């Protein structure tokens, strides 16, 4: 029998798990490419020019998205587990953090 | 009610000796009809060998829970009209438990875990002492009150994907029981409770997916109880006392 | 290490990483303006004690955090149990730490 379970908290759990798994699988590649800088900066440069390709750009966007989703999902869990706040207080806190992050990132994008 | 005189009901049949297989029945439709009524009609009128469990029929005893269209529910208080998918219902035994036969799940692992979670009374007094007066307005008492209406139906245990992936996990009901006892002024051994929920499969295995709270038929909140246990064990780790 | 200690290590490493990740995302947004080059990255990081400490602690925390997270996934989704799962997670953690240290050394030394 197909199990019905797609309610918001379950989806948040799945997103957190999949983003974490994706980041963990990406990390070795990330470290490996950076360590080229040690003995062969030209090779690192050759790799970095790949980042101009649209497909790689999309993948980069995906990775930053995974990182941001895992960060905020994780802060949500820490607040849920460790702060003895009521549910509405947590909702407002989350909204405040998300809002200030949006404002400050927009500022950063404009400033540079 | 829409005009229809029959429901198409698919029931999962089988057990340890025979693999589970669906069997479909046409059951007369009525205006007021619970899922348990439907299952009983099949057993009484179509196939007397159908095995299922129920007792009180009023949502007190917690014995009639089954999977209904993919969701664990107390069947005696689930109206057919609320769960009907087109004109069909699929009924199966509770998930995450062994099947005895057909719709009857073996509840032993579920109850064993209540004991493993230290869901037992640790008395503060003996029978010779006067009964302790309990202040109903304290924060602790209200936390405890929030969880004591559990009827042990195992709906939360069946709904939980952490139980599905981790057979050691104690599950929402047992942990909620531990949390009510932890907040009970009449319980003398809080440390034993925190130790029991800190081991393999304890409250720290929970991923806060909240299916327990979403599907609890009594509208209890085991998720918040488990979060309370996480907070209490963390506080104890940093040297905080209750 | 008990299940509870793994939980504490998981949450504390997360707490340590939260500010690092925010800075990391900020640096990424800043760094990709006008394209990426090895010279630009190394010009920022090489010989910097600050970035060495920043990325060094980041690598330690992420190795612990990812190893414990993958241990949970290996148990729940791959059905691994007992010593095999613990051993594999420890290898993953140490492997990430080794690769990460090499990368930090490469860009900051």
TrEMBL record, chain A:
Pfam families reported in the protein's UniProt record: Sdh_cyt (PF01127)
Residues noted as binding heme in the record, renumbered to the chain: 70
Membership in a protein family: Belongs to the cytochrome b560 family.
Taxonomic lineage from the root: Bacteria, Pseudomonadati, Pseudomonadota, Alphaproteobacteria, Rhodobacterales
Coiled coil, from the record: none
Complexes and interactors: Part of an enzyme complex containing four subunits: a flavoprotein, an iron-sulfur protein, plus two membrane-anchoring proteins, SdhC and SdhD. The complex can form homotrimers.
Originating species: Marivita cryptomonadis
Keywords: Heme, Iron, Membrane, Metal-binding, Transmembrane, Transmembrane helix
InterPro entries assigned: SdhC_prok (IPR039023), SQR/QFR_C/D (IPR034804), Succ_DH_cytb556 (IPR014314), SuccDH_FuR_B_TM-su (IPR000701)
Protein name: Succinate dehydrogenase cytochrome b556 subunit
Cofactor comment text: The heme is bound between the two transmembrane subunits.
Record field: transmembrane: 20-38, 59-79, 91-109
One GO biological process term: tricarboxylic acid cycle
Function according to Swiss-Prot or TrEMBL: Membrane-anchoring subunit of succinate dehydrogenase (SDH).
Cofactor: heme
GO cellular component: membrane
Cellular compartments annotated: Membrane
Single Gene Ontology MF annotation: electron transfer activity
From TrEMBL, chain C:
UniProt cofactor(s): heme
Annotated Pfam families: Sdh_cyt (PF01127)
Record keywords: Heme, Iron, Membrane, Metal-binding, Transmembrane, Transmembrane helix
Highest taxon listed in the record's lineage: Bacteria
Regions annotated as coiled coil: none
Main subcellular localisation: membrane
Any one GO MF annotation of this record: metal ion binding
Cellular localization per UniProt: Membrane
Gene Ontology cellular component annotations, sorted alphabetically: membrane
Gene3D superfamilies according to UniProt: Fumarate reductase/succinate dehydrogenase, transmembrane subunit (1.20.1300.10)
Record-linked InterPro entries: SQR/QFR_C/D, SuccDH_FuR_B_TM-su
Transmembrane segments: 12-32, 52-74, 86-107
Function: Membrane-anchoring subunit of succinate dehydrogenase (SDH).
Protein name in UniProt: Succinate dehydrogenase
Taxonomic lineage from the root: Bacteria, Pseudomonadati, Pseudomonadota, Alphaproteobacteria, Rhodobacterales
């Amino acid at each position: 029998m197909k199990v019905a379970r797609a309610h918001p908290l379950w989806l948040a759990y799945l997103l957190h798990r999949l983003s974490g798994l994706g980041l963990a699988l990406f990390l070795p590649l990330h470290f490996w490419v950076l360590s080229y800088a040690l003995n062969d900066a030209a090779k690192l440069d050759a790799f970095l020019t790949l980042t101009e390709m649209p497909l790689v750009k999309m993948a980069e966007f995906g990775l930053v998205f995974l990182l941001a989703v895992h960060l905020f999902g994780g802060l949500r869990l820490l607040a849920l587990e460790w702060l003895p706040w009521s549910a509405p207080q947590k909702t407002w806190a989350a909204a405040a953090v998300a809002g200030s992050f949006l404002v400050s990132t927009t500022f950063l994008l404009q400033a540079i | 009610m829409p005009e229809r005189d029959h429901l198409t009901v698919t029931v999962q049949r089988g057990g340890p000796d025979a693999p589970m297989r669906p069997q479909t029945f046409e059951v007369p439709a009525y205006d007021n009809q619970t899922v348990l009524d439907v299952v009983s009609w099949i057993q009484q009128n179509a196939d007397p060998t159908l095995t299922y469990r129920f007792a009180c029929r009023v949502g007190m005893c917690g014995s009639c829970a089954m999977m209904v269209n993919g969701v664990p529910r107390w069947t005696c208080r689930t109206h057919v009209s609320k769960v009907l998918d087109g004109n069909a219902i699929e009924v199966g035994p509770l998930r995450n438990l062994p099947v005895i036969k057909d719709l009857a799940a073996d509840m032993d692992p579920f109850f064993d875990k209540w004991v493993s979670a230290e869901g037992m009374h640790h008395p503060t007094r003996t029978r010779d002492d006067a009964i302790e007066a309990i202040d109903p307005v304290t924060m602790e008492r209200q936390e405890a009150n929030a969880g004591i209406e559990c009827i042990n139906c195992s709906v939360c245990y069946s709904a939980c994907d952490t139980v599905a992936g981790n057979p050691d996990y104690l599950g929402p009901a047992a942990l909620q029981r531990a949390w009510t006892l932890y907040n009970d002024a009449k319980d003398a051994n809080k440390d034993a409770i925190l130790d029991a929920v800190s081991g393999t499969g304890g409250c720290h295995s929970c991923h806060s997916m909240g299916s327990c709270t979403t599907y609890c038929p009594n509208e209890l909140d085991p998720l918040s109880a488990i979060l309370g246990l996480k907070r209490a064990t963390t506080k104890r780790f940093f040297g905080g006392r209750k | 290490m008990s299940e509870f200690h793994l939980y504490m290590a998981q949450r504390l490493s997360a707490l340590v990483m939260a500010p690092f990740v925010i800075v990391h995302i900020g640096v990424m947004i800043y760094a990709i303006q006008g394209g990426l080059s090895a010279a630009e990255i190394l010009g920022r990081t090489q010989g910097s004690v600050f970035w060495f400490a920043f990325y060094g602690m980041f690598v330690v925390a992420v190795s612990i955090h990812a190893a414990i997270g993958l241990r949970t996934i290996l148990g729940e989704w791959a059905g691994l149990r007992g010593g095999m799962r613990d051993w594999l997670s420890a290898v993953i953690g140490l492997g990430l730490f080794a690769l990460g240290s090499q990368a930090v050394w490469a860009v900051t030394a």
